[in-house]
Every structure is written in structure tokens, then in C-alpha cells.
Amino acid sequence: MTDNIPVIAVDGPSGVGKGTLCQSLAQHFGWHLLDSGSLYRVTALAAQKQAVHLDNEARLALVAARLEVRFETVPDQETQVLLEGENVTAAIRSEACGNAASVVAALPAVRAALLQRQRDFRQSPGLVADGRDMGTVVFPDATVKLFLTASPAIRAIRRYKQLREKGINVSLAALEKDIAERDARDAGRAVAPLKPAADAQVVDTTELGIAAVRQQALAILAAYLKPGTA
Fold first, then answer.
1. What residues contact residue 127 under an 8 Å CB cut-off, 6+ apart?
2. pLDDT band at 76, cuts 50/70/90?
3. What pLDDT digit, counting tens, does each position of 117-133 carry?
4. Which three-class secondary structure state does DSSP give residue 224?
């Protein structure tokens, strides 16, 4: 039984700092990490490799069900994502893959195929789950639920800086447009729309740096987790 294993569910749109916070929390507590957004990105990438079109829901669901993916947490680096043993961390972070993942994530059959896979990450001593519906759909009984948010303009700037640091030339205006369109698509989808769980603690990261977000999150978690967890 895994129901008694604690879960920290961290939801929110792209560019709010979920990934950085979740990796930090997983290392802080010594818990497992689930980057659920990567599962959809990996599905989109695997579909591309297998020449499966994004409008073929049945085939995409098969791709999702057969994914062989795992995460490796590396100190001072972003979480490494491996697909069938291949490091695809950089490949799935492209804007094209992100947009394709948003389309894939709106498909009920794909979400159903990945639901149990995500729940299987709930292992002792605990799990930090990073996503968009962790607290509403995947782990509705999560020990604590956080929902991170930030203004679209700030999120676009953050993404712009990340990509430029990687040597990728992008348009800031195009990024902001893509983010707005993705937000509208994610919030308006019929299945698991992007929204805070009713019992989630909302953290606005617009004016906060990484250290401040982490400090605020740990202060919230202290009220929910058993003494001595960290």
C-alpha cells in the first residue's frame, strides 16, 4: 500500500519555478521526484521519433503506455530525463516539444495511459510531484499541495534567459505569445484543466527569487509534514 507515503504536489504553469523548487525539495527531504510535465514532453518526442502524428490519439496513447522513462537527480544541475536509456533532457526542453506536449496532454486517452505511471512514482520515503494536475487529479490525497504562479511577462523573460544561456536564439515577444496561448489551452481543456486544487497553497513567484520561493515553500510545508521529516 502506498496511500500512507507522503506526497508534496507542486502545480502551476510553465516558467513559475516548479522544476527548480521540486528538485530542491526532493534533495532537501531525500525523496523521489516526479517531473510529470516531462512525461508528456517525452511522449511527444517519442511520437516524433516513431512518426506518430499529434492528431492520432489512439497511437499516441500506445506510445505513452509503453514509455520507458526515468529521472536522475544531479546536484547543481537540472533533473536528467532518460528515455530508453538515452538522455533526452535537452531535446524535450525545446519550445517545439513543449507546444507538442501541451497538445498531447489535452488528449484523454494519453492522460489515462500516463495516470497510473505517474502514481507508481509514489514510493517510500516520499515523493515530490511536479506538474499541472498533481494535486487535482493524480494525487488528490497529497499531504500538501502548492500552486505556483507568476505573470506571463516574467515567465517569458525567465524562459528567454534560459534559452539564451543555452545558445538558443529566440524572440521574447514570440515566447510571451506562446505562453499566453499555452495557458489558454491548458486552462480551457475539458480534461484536468490547469487550476489550483481547492486546498492548495498559492505562491506568486513574480517578485521572488529561487531562494525566496524555496524558503516560503519550506515554511508552508512545515505546517503539514511530521516533525523530523527534514
1. 5, 6, 7, 8, 31, 32, 33, 34, 121, 139
2. confident
3. 899 889 999 999 999 89
4. coil
Could you tell me if 104 and 43 are in contact, meaning their C-beta atoms sit under 8 angstroms apart?
yes
Q: Do 64 and 111 contact (CB within 8 A), yes or no? A: no
Count CB-CB contacts under 10 A for residue 183.
17
Give pTM, 2 decimals.
Answer: 0.81
Q: What are the sequence ranges of the domains in the chain?
A: 7-220
User: How many alpha carbons lie under 13 Å from residue 225 in its C-beta half-sphere?
Assistant: 22
Scanning the structure block, which residue is given the C-alpha cell 496532454?
105
Selection from 101, 78, 105 nearest residue 21 by Cα: 78
Strands laid side by side in the 201-204 sheet: 32-35, 127-131, 7-11, 144-149, 201-204
Q: Is 139 left (phi over 0), alpha (psi -120 to 50) or beta?
A: beta
Please tell me the CATH superfamily of domain 7-220, with its number: P-loop containing nucleotide triphosphate hydrolases (3.40.50.300)
What DSSP string runs through 61-91? HHHHHT--EEEE--TTSPPEEEETTEE-TTG
pLDDT at 184: 83
Residues 6+ apart with CB under 8 A from 173: none
